Fold each of these.
Amino acid sequence: MPKVHYVTHDGSRHEIDVAIGESVMRGAVDNDIPGIDADCGGQCACATCHVFVDPAWFEKTGERTEMEEMMLEFADATDENSRLACQIDMTEQLDGLVVRMPESQH
Ligand code: FES
């Protein structure tokens, strides 16, 4: 199963298996990784699953949707590598993906 490396704002790393087709948000929530609240349950309606995708991986995660862009405006301290974790679905190509959680989510 492909792995995601979740890095919390304090630098703790969590290496988690995430099934293909599952979202990066679900991988964190199902494994009690702090820093991703996912208040809306993955509906792209809360922005509490904001992550910074490692720049080396950003393109592989695909394009942000228009809705995701809108929701990111409500997140704190976004940058060019910001994504909503519920909008990234795992693929074989994302094995080893690194995402960092913002300090505002912990
Ligand atoms: Fe709400 Fe991702 S879980 S926007």
Note: The two ends are 27 Å apart (CA to CA).
Amino acid sequence: MKFEYSAGGVVVKKEKDKLWVLVIESSRYHHRGLPKGHIGDTIKGETKEEAALREVKEETGAQGTILRELNPITYFYSFEGEKRKKTVYFFLMRYTGGDITQHDIESENVEWISVDEIEQRLTYEDERKVCREARKYFDLLD
Ligand code: ATP
């Protein structure tokens, strides 16, 4: 079995008295999820925090700052007949700027979704759980 490690973010902004979370649609799998990607694939010695910020920037065009680490998720999938165990480290991030139309081809769409709708819009239950945990720390955004 191959082990994979990725990092990503629950990127939040406050606007019109509401909180909004960045969600992407994956070009490859067409699921709707949080931005994330492989740690250290192109940068040797990259930390999970650095990877999370880099992947958010690449996949969404947005820049953020990390407010705190959230619980990681683990899932299994098969690729070309080989089983993979994947761990994804997530961070709660404050959106600091950037244009969400300027994303790479990994995402076919990037949008801000109201926190009230986030659970029904995400494809995977484990990422819904990450968002539920993130909600506990939204006072860090004040
Ligand atoms: P990364 O975004 O880390 O670069 P990737 O785009 O190569 O990764 P994943 O998004 O991990 O790949 O998708 C690999 C497989 O796992 C796909 O079949 C996808 O549908 C499934 N998958 C993706 N996210 C989750 C999740 N949160 N829970 C369960 N299965 C998932």
Note: The pocket of adenosine-5'-triphosphate is lined by residues 6, 26, 28-29, 31, 33, 36-38, 73, 75, 77, 86, 124, 126-127 (CB under 6 Å).
Amino acid sequence: MEKISFVIPIYNEEGNIEELFKELTCVADMLKHPYEILLVDDCSSDGSLGIIKVLAARHKQVRYLSFENNCGQSAALYAGFQHADGDIIITMDADLQNDPADIPTLLQHFGEYDMINGWRADRQDTLSKKIGSRIGNFVRNRLTWETIHDTGCSLKVMRASMLKEIRIFRGLHRFLPTLMRLEGARVLEVPVHHRARVHGVSKYNNLQRGIEGLYDVIAVRWMIKRHLKVRIKEFND
Ligand code: UDP
Ligand code: MG
């Protein structure tokens, strides 16, 4: 049975980690897969690391990494991907906005698809965030020939062997469906629940996300155009 690695980036989420662990293990224990939970602390300045260490000491399925400095969500995910030893990698935010109860539904499609991306159809965020995200997805889709409604949804199920081939740079976690497709992945979007953030604060604002996102989209457009599509016709050993 394929092993699952849950990879969760954490930056100042002390109010959320224990509840997330409870909800996630409740769902994961019911899956028929062995699993690990990889908590990646992106140099939190609150009590997150202390809570992570207690969980890791008490539960053998919990592993953790902690950064020396704050490197951002893409870096936390990338480090997690490289350290994960599962065949399937599932990502989600640490802030309880994603609902672990959606995982079995997403997993049903794994096999037929190599990546299943959540789609927050009824998103519980501020209006400005929802508008910003709409514009972001529209521009991203137009410039990268994509059709993904909600690339920012962190709840994603991915084939580890493909994901580990991707070199991720800052900001590129927002392009994972496209980068996975470049690796040959079949990608599906599935509607998922979304909850309002109760503890802690969002780490992003629209302006910063917009400026960085535009820069990133140009890089990804270049990657798609320059992607090597080699199909070997013949070879000898
Ligand atoms: N995060 C991180 N490093 C950062 C910023 C965010 O690891 O520098 C984590 C954060 O703790 C959360 C996830 O990335 O688990 C998404 O962040 P956030 O919820 O602030 O983003 P939003 O949902 O508001 O887009
Ligand atoms: Mg969030």
Note: The pocket of magnesium ion (ligand 2) is lined by residues 93, 95, 97, 197, 202 (CB under 6 Å).
Amino acid sequence: MPTDAQRKPPGRDADFVEQLAAANLHPLWDRFRTLTPVRPQAKDPPLVWRWADIEPFAGRAVAQVPIDDVERRALILVNPAFGGETVTTNHLIGAFTILDPGDRARPHRHTFAAIRFATNAEGAATIVNGRRCEMREGDLILTPPMCWHGHINDSDRRVTWFDAANIPLIRALDANFFEPGDPSANEFWQVEDGEEKLWREAGMIGMDAPRLPAHSPKYHYSGAAMRRLLAALPPGRDGARTARYVNPVTGDAVMPALDCYAMRLTKGQPMRPRRTTCNMICLVTRGKGRSSVGEHSFDWSQHDVFSIPHWNFASHQAHEADADLFIVSDRVAYERLDLLREEFQ
Ligand code: 1HN
């Protein structure tokens, strides 16, 4: 394939191009290289956010920001390559939320998709559409588009968890709608697990389950169950053991434009570098290791987060013991647009 530089510069007559522009016309021959790069080129280099650097700010955020004054108390991971935009990597935002004992993050709903992954949130719960989802170690909780959700810390200690959302994608599409809930509505919080019971038993669903939900009808995915699956899974083509969180009715991604995975890395075992057109945010849920992404290499340990911007070869290696990653991605959006490409180095 020719590189951009090897393609012939288009001939142009500056006067003509200017006159066209004045008439709100652009000549394609003058724009072609910009409009159709020969391959994707991510704006952002990969970046690591270390939990040790974030944690002190979490304490300060709790001290300075009363939860009743803000919609959410989240610290968002930002890559400066986006020029000050609130973006972690293309289409995605990762963050950490902190709640003190008794804190309630009031209900709201929106068209962007979001998830929580419980890193240190025992005793807290997310309520999604009238179902209480407890946040045990390693649990994943979906807050699908336009589902009402709020968070509560019923424990006597500070809790933190990892959040991710596809806000930059929904902003690019200018398709965001947001509705605040009633902060004083007590009945919102006084619920039990409700219909989540229908989705707890793996591989078994009610005969009359609706066949065409836009997102998974199951909102709560157990960390303990995922750890059992990772222990049983054989290594995949890249050498890692990877599981996808799916909609139990369709077997498809959990939400239309946000996709989640868990990966177990065997100690010392190298992976085959792979690149894909989609973007990923990786949360280290257990262990220590090193990743190589494009031209960059970096070490990580538990609760660090790093980005894998699209079309960079990436591989990971666990040190000392096996390590686990939780990965959130826009992969399903690329699948649905028939734009997913993947290759090994
Ligand atoms: C979000 O939507 C929530 O709705 C919480 O509960 C934290 C952090 C970053 C982006 C979106 C919520 C968030 C978030």
Note: Residues 51-64 form the longest helix (14 residues).
